[in-house]
Amino acid sequence: MTIKVAIVQKPPVLLDLQATMQRALESLEEAVSNGAQLVVFPEAYLPGYPTWIWRLRPGGDMALGNRLHSILRENAVDISAGGLDRVCEAAAKHNVVVVMGMNEVDSDYSGTTLFNTVVVIGSNGEILNRHRKLMPTNPERMVWGMGDASGLRVVDTPVGRIGCLICWESYMPLARYALFAQDIDIYIAPTWDSGEIWLASMNHIAREGGCWVLSTATAIHGSDVPADFPERDMLFDDDEWINPGDAVIVKPFGGVHSGPLHQEKGILYADISLEDARNSRKALDVSGHYGRPDIFHLEVDRSIKPPVRFTDK
User: Cβ-count burial of 210 within 10 angstroms (0-12 exposed, 13-18 middle, 19+ buried)?
Assistant: First the structure.
């Protein structure tokens, strides 16, 4: 089975959920018009990755950091309140599978905590899986809470079995193995990382897991930051590439198939064969004949971890 995939690395309208949502829908339309059956967006695309956290002075810019976080929270996606309905409707309308990264607000319990979340939306518009980043990296922990393993799943879609890990979760060997052990065809790694070291990691994962690997950051230039962004000129330079994007598609068992799409605000397309993943695991199947379950044992607790349980009599 051969499918056409599209990886979107166009910039969002940073900190503006509705404007970014519109851009996402326009990119989805463009990808579908070019024949895409699977469309992938970057980490935290709605309404943009909080890149300012790597630029604030520790302790010195606390007021600015708090202000930016408040705006981010106000523009985060509330899934339970229908915050993804427009994307789900577009997926169903175009009969396309969508993988979308976002800042998600927890309205079920605290109403305040944010999560770095990726969802897989089926071609019928149904949310097939929601995965919250297990471990935010360094200053990300001042933005996002830690997710549980309830979304550590590989799901069936019309374009193959898809699993997702976000950015440096791909450096968590046990998390990777948990996906490899679920008959994965396509491993999707929305990220903020880029460059040669990240590309080497994606090659390693494609070889280790015997699966297609799709990854991208957001291609965003200093000039893409909105003019009304608080303290914009202090944090960003109009002439800099904040992130080059580097969307890439890696073949099962390693080797770049398409990309990287470097410093280009566009969409990377490729045709991939799902059977290549299964064929590549003949020599190396880390959760099959190349594993040693008599020696090693992994147990994953995928139960949901609510902060409170209420009993009403």
Answer: buried
d(CA 153, CA 165): 10
| CA–CA gap between residue 36 and residue 146 (Å, rounded) | 33
Q: What are phi and psi of 270, to 5 degrees?
A: -165, 150
CA-CA distance, 199 to 43, in Å (whole number)?
A: 16
Angle in degrees, CA 163, 168, 170, rounded to 5: 40
- Can 133 be counted among the known catalytic residues? yes
- Distances in Å between the Cα of 271 and the Cα atoms of 36, 59, 154 are 9, 48, 21
Whether pTM exceeds 0.85: yes
Tell me whether residue 164 is one of the annotated catalytic residues.
Answer: no
**Which residue from 143, 127, 168 is spatially nearest to 51, judged by alpha carbons?**
143
Write out pLDDT tens, residues 193-223.
999 999 999 999 999 999 999 999 999 999 9
pLDDT tens for each residue of 240-270? 999 999 999 999 999 999 999 999 999 999 9
Catalytic residue among 88, 133, 164, 251: 133
Structural domains in the chain, sorted by start: 2-280 (3.60.110.10)
Structural tokens at position 14: 């940073």
- Give the distance between the most distant pair of CA atoms in the chain: 62
How far apart are the C-alpha atoms of 154 and 209, rounded to whole Å? 13
Active-site pick, 4, 10, 43, 251: 43
pLDDT (tens digit, 9 = 90+) per residue, 73-104?
Answer: 999 999 999 999 999 999 999 999 999 999 99
Identify whether 167 is a catalytic site residue: yes
The band of 170, judged by pLDDT with boundaries at 50, 70 and 90, is: very high
Which residue in 140, 167, 169, 208 is the catalytic one?
Answer: 167
